[in-house]
Specification:
alpha+beta, two-stranded antiparallel ribbon, 11 strands, 14 helices, 2 domains, single chain
């Protein structure tokens, strides 16, 4: 096939405008397809970091909005394999205009003295850690969140409560750095507890556990849930990564949504590519007859036409992946709502799969036109006039 390469490349570019438009169409389609496949990979196949793999989250079995007694903390702490347990309560609230998506970020109440043990991957200077622990109205924010809202140490941040009614004003005492999720705000659990009603004062939405070894995650999860199986407030314990993925359920069936769009995009690419290849093959019927008179076999003629289609489709695939990779930086800088996309990129398996799909689209879209053209009788081909 290499000896036919000059002929293949020349024929692929014989109608440069049409080839360029086809490549651009395929590129935009595969750009969208690559982003969707990368999102699916990030949601369901990304590997947790070494510290993430050691964290487990316990919440109410019914729903995250249903609280659990604080007394569970000490019982969980005594479970074999658990290094430490930290209270984490979703605060909610609104910052400035709640209708602006840019003002939406996670706000949790935590125990400052346990953050270093449970989240050692969050890099926070010791003086800022101590300042946060001493200030009852202090808070800690992630670097990405601080950069987006221009938060500085000592700034005061007003919040309007919703789950816990009332206005509060927090002082930024620390800015932490993390490679995974640095868009959160953390305030003191004791401060939030003062604003709770007597009914909620001894309750929390979840506990974050730090286990000794990765091998202990499954055993600890089963032990904790078994401990409270017959309690009034049953629990569901899962890895931090599984807990994060559970938030996607608020959007519905995300897997079906992504698969549906990918299928629609692939079908659209097939239609665009198939129409172009059919036109190209129809224009060259007489040339096919001449090639046959020169000794080219139907198989070699079909292979040449298929190779032209694959070249065009692969060019569109490479361009589309380059565009998708460029867009990942925009996704990484955007606010993360339901999932951590701070490391979002086009992974190698997704890139390879997209290129293979581009090649397959080239073959499928051109198979019937090339087969029809290659097997047309010489006399009929030479007489063809369209």
């Amino acid at each position: 096939m290499t000896k036919y390469l000059p002929l293949i490349l020349k024929n692929a570019l014989r109608n440069r405008r049409r080839s360029a438009l086809t490549i651009i169409s395929i590129a935009f389609s595969l750009c969208l397809l690559g982003l969707l496949m990368a999102l699916y990979h990030a949601f369901y196949f990304s590997e947790p970091t070494s510290d993430q793999a050691l964290r487990v989250v316990t919440r109410n079995r019914v729903s995250l909005t249903n609280p659990m007694p604080l007394s569970y903390q000490q019982k969980i702490r005594q479970t074999p394999g658990v290094r430490d347990v930290m209270i984490m309560q979703w605060y909610g609230g609104a910052y400035k205009d709640a209708r602006d998506p840019g003002n939406m970020f996670a706000r949790f109440a935590v125990e400052p003295d346990k953050m270093a043990t449970v989240y050692p991957d969050w890099k926070l200077p010791e003086d800022q850690r101590q300042a946060f622990a001493r200030d009852r109205t202090g808070c800690v924010v992630g670097r990405k969140l601080a950069n987006r809202h221009n938060f500085r140490i000592g700034d005061r941040i007003p919040l309007e409560g919703d789950i816990f009614p009332g206005k509060i004003e927090l002082t930024v005492r620390g800015i932490y750095d993390s490679n995974t999720d640095n868009e959160n705000m953390f305030l003191q659990w004791d401060y939030l507890k003062e604003m709770m009603s007597n009914r909620r004062m001894d309750m929390t939405s979840m506990f974050v556990l730090r286990v000794e070894r990765v091998e202990d995650v499954t055993g600890v999860s089963k032990s904790v849930d078994e401990m409270f199986r017959n309690a009034p407030f049953q629990t569901k314990t899962e890895s931090e990564q599984a807990f994060a993925i559970s938030f996607l359920a608020f959007l519905g069936n995300v897997k079906l949504f992504l698969f549906s769009i990918c299928g629609a995009v692939t079908f659209t690419i097939l239609l665009v590519s198939g129409n172009t290849m059919a036109m190209s093959a129809r224009e060259r019927v007489r040339e096919v007859g001449i090639l046959k008179t020169l000794g080219y076999t139907p198989g070699s003629i079909q292979a040449i036409i298929l190779a032209e289609a694959v070249c065009i489709a692969m060019a569109g695939g490479v361009l589309g992946l380059a565009m998708a990779q460029g867009l990942t930086s925009f996704v990484r800088s955007a606010p993360s709502m339901l999932a951590d996309l701070s490391r979002f990129t086009i992974p190698a398996p997704v890139a390879v799969l997209c290129l293979l799909l581009a090649a397959l689209i080239g073959v499928v879209s051109c198979w019937i036109p090339s087969w029809t053209a290659a097997r047309r009788p010489i006399v009929e081909a030479l007489r063809f006039n369209d």
